From TrEMBL:
Name recorded for this polypeptide: Yip1 domain-containing protein
Region described as Disordered: 1-24
Segments passing through the bilayer: 56-79, 91-109, 129-149, 156-176, 182-202
Record key words, sorted: Membrane, Transmembrane, Transmembrane helix
Amino acid sequence: MENKDSEIMPQNPVQHDSGEDKDKPDISYIDFLIQTIKNPDGILTNEPKGYHTYGMINIIAFIVLVMVNSLVGRLIVVVRYNSDFGNVFNYLSRGIAYLVAIAILLAVFKHFANKNGHTFDLNFFMEKFGALLIVPSIFIAVSLPLDALDITFHSWINSLSFTFLYISIFLISYLFVARNNIQTASIFVIGFYLAYRLIYYIL
């Protein structure tokens, strides 16, 4: 009986990971960027990977780049045509409008996902959406020196960045909120655009 009991009962109880360990990223930020670019499908899963801090960094980086893009564009006009710079806030307001619109978007994502029976939190959406903002940020960063050098197609590169922003919104909506519903995912994209334009108009 003792031998049978010893065979049935596990010698070492199973240890469950704590919530704190789950929230800690297991790779560096640079590795996160590389992995996301090389294999975005590995990031865009239903499981949180603890990369929400990296996602938040990407969102902030995107907003900063939008502001820098506006400031640099205006500075180039001032230098080339000897015009006044004007009010600095006017060139920061675009980035602020995107920041507020993205914050609202993430909250709406969480609300509708929870309403549809999913347990995704804000950290989850910061991780996934922030990961997708790597590509738009790269395009903006590339367009800045091209604009300074007066290379005509810099505007194409810049436009691509915002095209990929809206593609990112559609993907997150389609994969995690609308769940394979193209119509609903499209409504999220349109809603974000209208919210951004309204906030920008108010500012």
